[in-house]
Amino acid sequence: MKTKGKTPKYGLIFNSSFIGRAGQKNQGRISRYLANKCAIASRVDCFSEAPTSKFGETLKDQMEERLKFLSQGVKPRKNKEAMNEVIEELKKEGLFYGDKVRVKREDGDESEEEAPKKEKKEKKEKKDKKRKHSEVASDSEAEEIEKKAKKDKKKKKSKD
User: Fold this and answer.
1) Residues 24 and 89 in one domain
2) Based on CB atoms within 10 Å of each CB, which residue in 35, 58, 83, 117 is the most buried?
């Protein structure tokens, strides 16, 4: 950036040490992989309640595993497995709450399971109502068209 030259094909991320360590033919793959891991890290940082570096460290380890895979053929862990390990670790420390934690509600509120069912039922009722209304409207339109057709036939017969 200081030299004001053209940026590389893969952008500024191409200057990363991970990409420099990859072979020439694998640099594009590693740059895409690194970009994906950066996106995951930014989402985790954005949506986590308590900041922690454990996700970042795991993502960095995954980058190392991917480099080994491309150079030596050692199979890396799946992202789901790696993230689940971190989540379990954070749960043990009491830092992860998750999206499936039940929240206590007041007596007048509906439970979490009943609300979506009720919404689906209401949507279905509205849909049925619209369908019935459109059927009635189309029936009345069809009757009007038939009446016009009969009138036209009568006019043609009377002219002949």
Assistant:
1) yes
2) 58
